[in-house]
Structure formats: C-alpha cells, structure tokens
Design the sequence.
C-alpha cells in the first residue's frame, strides 16, 4: 500500500482560518495556486506578505505538478482562474511561461521594479521578447537529497565517481536498505535521474548542445543522452532504486527517506523541505549525482525552478501586483528561499546559504551547472514524450535507441 499525501490542500491567510479549496474565499480574496512541492516556501512568503498587508486576504491552493500542468491552462481560459499561480520557466510544458504567454494568459510585469534586477539566467526563462511575464522565485538544483544518518549507518561516504555510486548501491542492498528511492509512478519524477546524468554525459563536453539541437546539428539519439539512459537502467539493474519504481509515487519516496527506508532520493532541492517536515530531526545533505569517473567533469542541473505569473484577466490585479512586487523583492526572495532548500532567483547580500545547499552553491560558483533540459525545448510535447518513454523503458517495453528516436520525432514536430 502506498503512503500518499492529499493531492490538493489549501490554506486561507489574512484572517487566519483554514479552508478547503476556495471555500470561504470571496471576491476580495487574492487567490493563489501553487505547486505542492513549494508549499513550505509559499506559506512563508504569504505569511510575510500578510504581515505587511494585513487588510489583504490570501487563499492558497496547492496541487500536484501533473495536475497543474494539465489543468491550469483551462482554468486561466475560464472566468474563474487564480490571480497568481505557478508557472514553469521556459517552454517545457503546457503551464510554462512561453506557452501561457502565447495564449495571452500572463500579465506583462516588465514595468515592475524586480524586472530591472533580473540576472541573465532568470531573464532568459521568464521573458518573451524582452518582456517579463513571471516572477522567478528560486534557483534550485537536481541532486541526491540524502539522510546523513542513513548513509553513516551503512558505513559509507558520498560518492564522487560513477564506480563509487554503483558500489554504494550494492553496499546499501547488502545492508538491507535502498540507496535511492525512485517514484516513477509519478510521471514528472521519471525525468530527474536522466537529467542529473545528462548534465555530465552531454553538457560536460557539449555545453552548447541546446543550440545545436535548435540548429538541427544534434539529436537525442546521437548524443550523450544514450549513455545517460543506459546508465539510468544500469542503476536500476544494480539495485540502486526502490524495488518497484513504477509502483512507487513521489510521496512514497519522501516518506522512505524521512523514515530511513532509503538513504536518499534524486530530486529538485526544494523537496528537502518536505522530507524535513516529515522528520524534523533528520540531518539532510545534497550531493551531485556522478555520471563518470572524472569528478572535475561532473555537472549538476540547476536553474530557476519556481516562478509565478499573474492572470492577465485577473479580478484582483492590485493585490496580485502587490504580491508580485513583494515576491520579487529581497525580503520576498529571502522568505521564500530561507523556508525552502533553494537559493534566491534574484541574488542579494542578505541571504545566507544553508549547509545543505553547499553543493548547489559550489557548482554554481564553479560554473558547473546546466539548465533544466526541458526549459529550452521547443514545445511541451518533448517532455510529455520523455515521461512516456521512461515508463516504457522501466517496464521493459522499449529500448534506449527506440526511446531516443521517439524523442527526436517529438522535438521536430510542431507540438
């Protein structure tokens, strides 16, 4: 039996009273829809915003990634969409900045103060034609979130090479535990290990791979993507993952690490806060997933992870703009990222990096990070195809070669 969290939870903040969905929210209530993985961070921002704006009521609804990407576009097309909502940077899925902007769903935030201060890596994924359509909230990496207690219990240290990683997986199995919880029943989880490996197998040698793809000079099939997916399956064969990844959810993996049934999980760093909430006394860390035996070449996927847009037809625009301004300020950025295991998308001198984020910050300083792959793909269909092919691979119903050719076909299609 799987341990599942509620798919959707909500809180009403202003006069502090709980509610479900938008029950109790009236026409004077600012309505926010956010990803459940960012709940801790958003709760902190809403609380801080509420202290500065005590007359503004805020209702926050949290939903799973898959639900948001599937349902948000239709909600915004209706007359009853949220005022502020999670959007994904770049162009990788139906709820991404470029996709929603093309449909006329996003309010232009170019005139706001925060838009002037955007660093290049943030501007490139929240702007369209030099106009800003979202507030970037955090900078996050994909790595191995692990329990220091569980790692010490099997007498091991964090691996620096591929061989050390495989050896650690075998050691964990011999000690009666799982090295890496893997929840591939949840579609968006299927991509993360691949991204973490591709960062090294592709981008360490071909940093301009995305541009080459756009120019028709590179393909998934004839690149280090093949090596990465082969390694992904090797990890599964060598017992690195949960016994039944396709029958394990994201929520299961969080519980498995929190309750020391698994040493760690390959996840976006913001998931660290969910594990911490489930087990407050657990000491956690993050290490970069190695894909080769030369540590100097190891790369980490890291980029703007969470961003928030405003409904172009929102009914509470004054309050929505006030919230966007706060989130884009140093106070808002710090509230969001101190609560979460992330770095500010708009850097400032008042933010202190948590020890658990040292690996991400070190990779960033050393120039050894690469963008989340889907942010630079031409349309959401590529990521959708990736989810499908990863499930087929884990079910033994396709090959790496066939999966990559399917991705190439999706990349060159129009949608």
Sequence:
């Amino acid at each position: 039996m799987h341990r599942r969290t509620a798919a959707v939870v909500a809180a009403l903040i202003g006069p502090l009273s709980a509610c479900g969905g938008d029950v109790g929210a009236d026409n004077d209530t600012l309505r926010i829809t956010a990803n459940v993985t960012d709940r801790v961070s958003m709760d902190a921002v809403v609380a801080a915003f509420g202290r500065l704006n005590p007359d503004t009521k805020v209702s926050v609804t949290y939903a799973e990634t898959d639900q948001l990407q599937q349902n948000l576009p239709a909600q915004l097309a209706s007359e009853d969409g949220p005022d502020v909502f999670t959007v994904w940077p770049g162009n990788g899925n139906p709820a991404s900045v470029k996709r929603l902007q093309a449909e006329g769903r996003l309010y232009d935030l170019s005139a706001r103060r925060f838009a002037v201060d955007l660093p290049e890596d943030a501007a490139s994924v929240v702007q369209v034609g030099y106009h800003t359509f979202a507030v970037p909230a955090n900078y996050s990496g994909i790595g191995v979130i692990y329990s220091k207690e569980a790692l010490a219990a099997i007498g091991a240290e964090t691996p620096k090479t591929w061989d050390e990683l495989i050896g650690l997986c075998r050691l964990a199995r011999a000690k009666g535990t799982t090295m890496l919880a893997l929840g591939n029943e949840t579609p968006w989880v299927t991509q993360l290990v691949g991204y973490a490996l591709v960062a090294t197998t592709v981008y360490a040698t071909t940093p301009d791979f995305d541009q080459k793809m756009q120019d028709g000079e590179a393909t998934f099939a004839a690149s280090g993507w093949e090596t990465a997916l082969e390694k992904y399956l090797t990890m599964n064969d060598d017992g690195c993952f949960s016994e039944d990844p396709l029958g394990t959810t994201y929520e299961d993996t969080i519980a498995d690490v929190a309750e020391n049934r698994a040493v760690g999980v390959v996840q976006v760093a913001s998931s660290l806060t969910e594990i911490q909430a489930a087990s407050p006394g657990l000491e956690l860390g993050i290490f970069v997933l190695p894909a080769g035996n030369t540590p100097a070449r190891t790369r980490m996927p890291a980029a703007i992870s969470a961003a928030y847009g405003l409904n172009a037809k929102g009914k509470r625009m004054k309050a929505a703009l006030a919230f966007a301004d706060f989130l884009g300020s140093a106070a808002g950025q710090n509230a969001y990222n101190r609560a979460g295991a992330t770095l500010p998308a708009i850097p400032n001198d008042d933010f202190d990096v948590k020890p658990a984020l040292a690996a991400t910050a070190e990779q960033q300083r050393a120039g050894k990070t690469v963008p989340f792959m889907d942010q630079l793909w031409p349309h959401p269909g590529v990521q959708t195809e990736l989810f499908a092919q990863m499930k087929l691979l884990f079910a033994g119903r396709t090959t790496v070669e066939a999966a990559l050719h399917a991705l190439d076909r999706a990349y060159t299609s129009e949608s």
DSSP finds 17 helices and 15 strands in the chain. The longest strand covers residues 138-147.
